[in-house]
Amino acid sequence: MTPADMEARIVRYGDLQPCKTAFIDAHTPGSNQKENFTIIGGGVSESPDQHVHITTPHGFNIGAAGQPPKCRNSLHNHRTAEVFFILSGRWRFFWGEKGDAGEVILEKGDIFNIPTNIFRGFENIGTDYGMIMAILGGDDAGGGVIWAPHVIEDAKDHGLILGANGKLYDSKKGETLPDGVDPMPLLTQDELAKIDCPTAAQVLGGYVRRYLDMVALSGEGPVKVIGENGIIRDKPGFEIDFLTRANASTEMHSHDKPSVLMPVAGHWRVEWEGGSATLAPGDTMSVPENLRHSAVPSMSGEAALYHVIATDDPAGQTWRNG
């Protein structure tokens, strides 16, 4: 594969195209400055303005959220796995229908495998613009977002209506629901009662892993972060490995499915049969199936990278960590 062909499969951090109208809370004070990025796959954006950088199916979606300080993402739920790692900034994740059931603070490199069937939200509590990278299970990411009822009601007060077809309509622009399209119904009390609400101990013990702890584990080969035998023991339709200078190898290898390389620290030189490229934190590289390649740090200093590949498991969390 030529360098030009591979460059088309690399989304550079500086080339990311944000969308500020991706979701129903785009006008809601406190959430109206967030930027949504869809890097690989269609994601779950509710807006036609969302740019998709790489449309090739991978068995999962890659996205990102960028937010200035004190900006939050409203409480929502997904039908498939949602995994975040912190690229920059300091972030508070919270859960429960009202966001008051528990919280965890995450920093650079930390990873959170958020369980399905819980309401979750997050906010940048740092002092600078921050970015979190996301992996969503399935090629269609479960068909969209399920919002907490108060989020839909708040959005309507600020001019945005979500149709039952999953599309947004902005009354401030004179848009109305098309004929035959009803508003997205609010979850009933019976439906809300079926939403999980784990304790903080369950979340911290089962779903969160700290960057420095993974660095400490990386001396004897790649750290299986999420997988059947991972330090987060789960089967969400993909696996995630953690690489550092200590466990990176120049040995060429390949996979039978497309894989994704996502640096979080340092610069990484990726070589393949036909060329090479250097990745920096925030870059995302899609490696085609059956292409022999390797990835190693290209400069001295701290270096860490997440590697994602689909599995044949269903695109949703099938196990619960206790």
Automatic annotation (TrEMBL):
SUPFAM superfamilies: RmlC-like cupins (SSF51182). It comes from the Bacteria. Residues 69-132 form the Cupin type-2 domain. This is Cupin domain-containing protein. It comes from Sulfitobacter profundi.
